[in-house]
Write a structure and sequence with these properties.
By secondary structure, the protein is mainly α. Helix content is 51%, strand content 0%. It has a domain of 36 residues. Helix 1 packs across helix 2. The longest helix has 19 residues.
Length: 83
């Protein structure tokens, strides 16, 4: 299939150089790069979930959101209470 795409000038120069170095075509370089990116995306969906073992404690503190890295950093940088 034939199509038109826009590529940053410097990226195109590098892709053409790679094609010359490897003795292939620019089309083959672009196709290989696209296949590689698509394969990585497919692999990401098949990863096994990681289980994290914790020791002791009562779990998360009330109000802690593990998806909010800025709030977690702020919480970790607070001085500890000396109970």
């Amino acid at each position: 299939m034939r199509t038109t795409i826009r590529i940053e000038d410097q990226l195109l120069v590098e892709a053409k150089r790679l094609a010359v170095r490897t003795g292939t075509t620019l089309t083959a370089v672009v196709e290989d790069a696209l296949r590689e990116v698509l394969a990585r995306q497919g692999d990401a969906g098949r990863r096994t979930p990681v289980r994290i073992t914790t020791a002791g404690g009562q779990g998360l503190l009330p109000g802690v959101d593990l998806d909010d890295s800025a709030a977690l950093l702020e919480l970790m940088e607070r001085p500890h209470d000396s109970d």
